[in-house]
């Protein structure tokens, strides 16, 4: 189940994240590092400026994914060690909220891309030797699993930056 897709304009947003190259089967290994990012922020007295996200940077032809798992922050902060500073870029995004188990996210993202194409929009993606390099493709986790342990009741915003 998902909300109706929409188009929204987003401002640039600084963020802190960890990056990793994984496969579809091992995405959880980078998502599992989100508590470390949150602990890093808490140790420095920095509050996240939004929900944790998983950003797909490159979807490789050989099944490898380059991902960043992080949180937005109110202002730019220098990273340290494997926690790196970044920016979620400004622009026009296609957006939908997926309600349900995370295993439904790939189908929801495909449906969002189809919807955007039907509206005359193309995603901000470039085809490279490494695979598809996304301008910004996000899964924003609105539900905290510690507060709602039933994954069939989780809500995740899917956002895909559009070209142009």
Give a description of the structure.
The chain has helices at residues 27-31, 34-43, 105-118; strands at residues 6-10, 13-23, 53-60, 64-72, 84-88, 91-99, 125-128, 131-141, 155-161. It has a single domain, classed as Alpha-Beta Barrel (Multidrug-efflux Transporter 1 Regulator Bmrr, Chain A). The protein is globular. The longest helix is centred in the last third of the chain and has 14 residues, at 105-118. The protein starts with 5 loop residues before the first strand and ends with a strand. It is built from 3 helices and 9 strands. It is α+β, with helices and mostly antiparallel strands.
List the helices and strands and how they pair.
Blueprint: E1 6-10, E2 13-23, H1 27-31, H2 34-43, E3 53-60, E4 64-72, E5 84-88, E6 91-99, H3 105-118, E7 125-128, E8 131-141, E9 155-161
Antiparallel strand pairs: 1-6, 2-4, 2-5, 3-4, 3-8, 6-9, 7-8, 8-9
Mean pLDDT: 94
What is the CATH architecture assignment? Answer: Alpha-Beta Barrel
> Which residue ranges are poorly predicted, with pLDDT under 50 across at least 5 consecutive positions?
none
| Beta-strand residue fraction | 35-45%
> How many beta-strand elements?
9
Order of helices and strands: EEHHEEEEHEEE
Largest sheet: 9 strands, antiparallel
Shape: globular
N/C terminus separation: 29 Å
Give the CATH topology. Answer: Multidrug-efflux Transporter 1 Regulator Bmrr, Chain A
């Amino acid at each position: 189940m998902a909300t109706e897709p929409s188009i929204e304009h987003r401002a640039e947003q600084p963020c802190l994240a960890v990056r990793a190259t994984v496969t579809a089967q091992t995405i959880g290994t980078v998502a599992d590092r989100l508590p470390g990012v949150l602990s890093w922020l808490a140790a420095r007295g920095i509050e996240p400026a939004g929900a944790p996200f998983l950003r797909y940077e490159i979807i490789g032809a050989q099944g490898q994914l380059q991902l960043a798992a992080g949180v937005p922050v109110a202002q730019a902060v220098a990273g340290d060690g494997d926690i790196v500073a970044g920016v979620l870029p400004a622009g026009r995004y296609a957006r939908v909220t997926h309600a349900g188990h995370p295993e439904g996210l790939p189908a929801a993202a495909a449906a969002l891309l189809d919807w955007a194409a039907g509206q005359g929009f193309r995603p901000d993606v470039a085809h490279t030797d490494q695979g598809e390099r996304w301008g910004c493709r996000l899964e924003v986790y609105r539900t905290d699993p510690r507060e709602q342990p039933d994954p069939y009741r989780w809500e995740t915003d899917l956002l895909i930056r559009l070209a142009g």
